[in-house]
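Here we describe the complex-level prediction in full. Unlike the single-chain runs in Section 2.1, the two entities below were treated as one system.
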Amino acid sequence: MTSGANAPIFAVVGHPNKGKSSIVATLAQDDGVAISNQSGTTRVAEPIEVKVGASSYTLVDTPGFQRPTKVLRWLQQHADSADKRQAAVAMFVGDALCQQQFPDEVELLTPIINGAAILYVVDGSRPYGTEYEAEMEILRWTGQASMALINPIENEDYVQHWQKALGQYFKVVRVFNAMQADIEKQRSVLEAFSIIKQEWQAAIEQLIAEYQSARESQQQQSVQLLAALLTRLCVFQLSQKVLTKSQAQLAKPVLQAKYIAEMNAIEKESHNTLKRLFRYHHLNSELYGLPLDDSLFDTEKWIVWGLNRNRLAAAAAMAGAATGAGIDLALAGSSLMLGALGGGLVAGSSAWFAADRIAEFKIKGLPIGGFEARQGPISNRNFPYVVLGRFLFLEQALLSRTHARRDDVVVKEGDLTEKIASMENSEQRQLHQALDRLRRQKSVDDLESVLRPLFI
Amino acid sequence: MLLNTAHSQPILKQITLSLICLGGLSGILLGYGVLAGDALGRVNLLYVLMLFAFLPVLALALSILLWLSGSTKGLVGGLLELPILPRQFRVATMELASSGKRKAWLFYQTQCLTLSFALGGMLVYLLLLLGSDISFVWRSTLLEASDLLPLLQTLAIPWLFWPEAQPGLELLQQTQDFRLSAQTTDAPVLGQWWKFILAAQCTYNLLPRTLMLVVSRYRYLRQTDTPPQDISTHPSPSRLNTSTDNTALAPVVFSVGAPYILLNWADAPLQCQQSVTRFLGTATSTMDVGPLVEPESININPLDQSVVVLVKSWEPPLAELSDYLLSLPSADSISGSNSGPEAAQRFLLPLDWTEAQVVPTRSNHLNEWRRFCSTLPGWQLLQLRETP
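The structure predicted for the assembly as a whole is:
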C-alpha cells in the first residue's frame, strides 16, 4: 500500500504554456484538469492525488516560471558553493519578500523543496533557447530527482536539440506527447522514476501493477456494459392498451417517436457510462440515431388482465388442472388423475374458444377486453451488429486518446467485420448465434463471455 | 453495476415477492393438507416426516446438484418460463442471463421459494398444535417399530441435546396404528411426537434453507455490487484554476511612425533582424537585451525615438519581460504629457522564424501577445505586413 506519506509526489514544472497541465491530465487520466491555450492558466500549485487501486501518487500542477533569471541571480547571491544551493532554494521559498516579488516561482518550488520529484516539461516543436537555462539551473539547485519530458506539441522538429540541452541538466530525458501517449508510455515514465529515485522503487512497482489490474477491470466492466446494452436494446418494447383497433392505430406515431427516443437514450446513457468508466467526464461524443425501421408496430387483441388469447387459455388450463388435482386428491388418487387432466383440457379450450366473448364483458359499462398497440422489439438481423460496432468504436477511441485532448469524438460503426474476423472460428460462431438469439428475443447465457474476445 | 440491470431491479423484486407468496401459500396448503389428518384427527407421522424432512433434504440435494452441474434453470427457472407470466419477467431474466448473473439469481430465488414454503408449513404446524388436537400415528404393513427406530434415531442425532424430542421404542409401539382395530392408546401419548417433528422441521428444512438463502444472497449481491472506481483523483481537479480576467486583445499595427531603436529580446538571428528593418525602415540602433540588462544602459530619447522590442512569438510572455518593458523610459515619464503620434511610441513585435527565415505568426500565438499587450499602458502590438 503506497498511500499517504510514502506515496511518490511529482511536481510538473516548466515554462508557461508548454503542456504541463496536459501532462498532468494524461498521467492522472482525468479530463477535469484545466487546460488552456492561454499562458498563465495555472495560478497556484494544485496537488492531485491519483489513487490506483490500493496505491496512490500525487501530481502537482504548477504555474510556469515567470522571472527565472532574477530568481537565479537571487539564489546565486545567497549560495556561494554547491553545498549551500539547496538551502538557498529553501530560503528563497520561505522568504516573505521573495513570496511577494516571485509568487510563481515560490509556488512551483515549494512542493519540490517539500520532497516532490521534478517532471520538467518543454515543447519539442519549438527551438531550444538560452532563456530556459536559468530555470533548469534553479531546478538543479533543488537537488531533487528529476526527469525532463519533451512534449512535441505541434511537431518533433526540435526534439534532438532539446535532448542535447536537457541531457546536461536531467538524468532522464523522455519524449512524451501528452496528446498521444498510450498507457505503455505513461507507465515508462513511472518506471524511469523508480530507477532515479530508489526509495520509491517498491511503491512505483506496485503502482504499475495496480494500473495493470485497473485496466483489466475497465475491460471487464466494458464487456458487462455492452452485454447489458445489447440485451436491453434488443428486447426493448413499448406498449399502450386501448379500447379499439382504430385507437391503437392512432397511438402509432406517438409510440414510434417515443420508442426511437428511448432506444437512442439507452445507447447514449451506455456510452456515457463507458466514458465515465474511462474517466472522461467532460468528453462530448456525437452519436447519430440508431437505424430503426418503421415496421415494428403491431396491434394485438388482448382479453382479460392483459392476457392475450394464448395466455388466457394457458392460465385457464392451469387453473382447471389445479382444481382437478384437488378433486383427485380428495378421491385419494382413485380417479387416476383424470380430474387434473380433464380440468386442464376443459378450462383451457373453453377459454380459447370463448376469448372473444369474454373480451366483450363489461364492468360498470367498460369492456374488460381491448387492444394493445406495440412498438418493438427490434427484428432487424443487423441491428445488434450496429450497436456492437458503435460501442467498440467508442471504446477504442477512448483507449487511443489521452485525457489532455479536448476535441469531440464522432462515434461511427467502425470496422466490425475485421474485428470479428480476428476472432477464433468458434468464437465467431458463438457471437453470431448469441446476437441472433437476442434478436429473436431468446436469452443468451453469459453473453459477456461471448463478447469478451472482441475486447482483446 | 453501471447501466446493467439497475432498471430491472423493481421487476426482479416483484418476481421475488411473487415467489415468496407462492412458496408460503403452497407450504400452508400442503402443510394443512397433511396435518389436518382424518376425521379423528390422526396424522400419519411418516407422511409428516416425508413433507417436513425427507422432501426438503431431497430438494436441497437436487438444488445443490443442479448448481454444481452448471444448470441455469432449476425449479424457479422453469416456473418463470410459464407462458402466462408478463413479458417484463422474461425480459428481466434475459438481462440477468446476458450478464451471467441469472444462475446465481435463480439459485437465490429457489432458496426464497423453498424457505417461504418451509415457513408456511411451520406456521400451519404451530397453529394446529396450538388450536387443535393432532394425533400422530404411523402405519406400515412391512415395518415394525424396531425397524423404524434406528432411522428415527439417526434423524434425531442433531438434537441429541433435547431428550424430550428423541424417538423411543415404546412411543413408536404405542403410536402404531391399524385402521381396522379400535384405538387403545391414550390420547396424550399420540401428541408426544410434536417435539420430534418440530426439531426435524427446524433441522432438515428451516435451518439449511436459511443458510442457503444467506449464502446465495451473498453470492448474488457480490456479483451485482458496483466495483469501486479503480482510478480516482482527489480532489477532483477543478477547471477553475484559470485566469480569465484578461480577454481584451490589443489592436495590431503595421508601421512605426518615427525613427526607432530595435531591442532584440528574442535573441533573433541577424537575418531576422534584417527582415524587420526591410519592412520598418532602418533602425537607429539595435541592441540585444534580456532580463539582466539594465534599462538605464540603453540610450533612448523617449521624446523622439520609438522603441520596437522583438520577441519570440511562440514563447508566452513572461513577467520578466513585462517588468522590463514597464521599466523602459517613456515620453510621459519625462514630459508628463502625451507626445504626438510621431514620437515616443512603444511597440512589441512577436516574430516567428524557421531556419532564420521569418514566417507568419500563428494566430494563437499572436492572440497571446495581443492579450499581453493590452495590459501594458503605452505599448502597441506590431506585425510585419507581409513576410518576405
